[in-house]
Specification:
The chain has helices at residues 25-41, 55-64; strands spanning 2-4, 9-11, 45-51, 67-74, 77-85. Strand 4 (67-74) and strand 5 form a beta hairpin. It has one domain: Aminopeptidase, CATH 3.40.630. The longest helix has 17 residues, at 25-41. It is an alpha+beta fold. The chain is 31% helix and 35% strand.
Amino acid sequence: MTPYKIFNCGNVIYFIDLKYQNRGFGTEALKELLAFMKEKYGARYFTTTYIWGNEQAKRVYMKAGFIETDVVDEDGIHEVNMFIEL
């Protein structure tokens, strides 16, 4: 985690290697990450984004409990913002 103390937030980046995708590992890893961040750092919520049309990413986030909040269009790229309260 990269903390930003001013805003009491941080960034987390993770990925699942192609050979392990579509097996539920991404969803489980995300759920574990959320639980860890809540327990270790007292995180209360998380936000994430995915590019419109990336159904695989959407599925992982929805299974973990995220909800879509809005869509931002920048230079023709539709980015979907998502939120979860822990």
